[in-house]
Amino acid sequence: MSTPPLGRGRPTSAELEALPLAPPAATGLAEVVRRRYLLGMLVRNTIKSRYQGTVLGWVWSYLQPAIRFCMFYFLFQVMIGRGEGTIENFAIHLFAGMVIVHFFTETFNGGTQSLVQNRSLITKLPVPREMFPVARMLVAAWHTVPMLIILLIPCLFLGWRPDAVGMAAALLGFTLTAALGLALGLLFSVGNVFMRDIGKVAQTLTQFVTFSVPMMYPFTLVQERFGEPLASYYLLNPMAEAVLLIQRGFWTGTTSDPEATAAVHLPDHLFTRGLVMTGISLALLVLAQRVFSRLEARVPERL
Question: How does DSSP assign 108-158, residue by residue?
């Protein structure tokens, strides 16, 4: 059976499906970095497809988080008065957590669906299949940048100024989230190929993230309600640690006394736990890469 000729432009879905299965490609995250040109093309195409057919295009990536911040500010800080007398600038506290949670959920959920959604490319092109979860992490990072800009505007208005410790905390929080999200994305993406229920499991797990981190409530509330022993178990959640780190980077600097705010509302040994959890997440990423490599050869036939 002869292979149908491809058109001069971008191949259609029918043309891709008619091609024979691609030969095995070199695998590994290092191979993804080596083929960064293809990775960049995949990221750009994914971003373009999200805004295809819209008039405002990428402006929506700024408009949506701006509207979301205004809604939370009006609802929680103006109408309900959440945080009055206890949490200064609660809207910043909340939105800072939303930024890191959004990055994680987009990386995790997008990575989980990445192989299934790109089945035509995976079965026809000899590319490292880790490229697709990595691309979804980069797309999530691209959409997180506008949220950070929206966060910075009220922070600067309230007197926030960058400091070395705060920036290190925010960077550590993003590193922890990226490593954890990509590791889970690799594991769940290959699992989702063999059993589609894995995608539903990922969506269910990410729903718990919003309520299991000190975002809509302060960490001190956990200490007051459950005591120190249970609060220490609460801090074993790496996403709770990531949220606290980014709050240290942005929210505390907007309060009238940043040092006092950090001492009261942030737990002790914040950086130590952040470094340990980042190390564990990187080790999990290495393990996820090995599991992915063992199973990825069977991915094209299952797709």
Answer: HHHHHHHHHHTHHHHHHS---TTHHHHHHHHHHHHHHHHHHHHHHHHHHHT
Run of H or E residues at 95:
helix 90-117
Q: How far apart are the C-alpha atoms of 251 and 198, rounded to whole Å?
A: 35
Distances (CA, A) of 287 to 184, 186, 201, 278: 10, 10, 20, 14
Q: How many residues does the chain have?
A: 303
CA distance 252 to 92: 9
55-98 pLDDT, tens digit each: 566 666 667 667 777 776 666 666 665 555 567 888 888 889 98
Domain residue spans of the chain: 24-302
Nearest to residue 142, comparing CAs of 65, 215, 69?
Answer: 65
Phi, psi of 203 (to 5 degrees): -65, -40
207 Cβ contact list (under 8 Å, min separation 6): none
pLDDT mean across residues, the chain: 81
Distance CA 245, CA 264 (A): 14
**224 CB neighbour count, 10 Å cutoff:** 10
Q: Which of 196-210, 266-280, 287-301 has the highest mean pLDDT?
A: 266-280
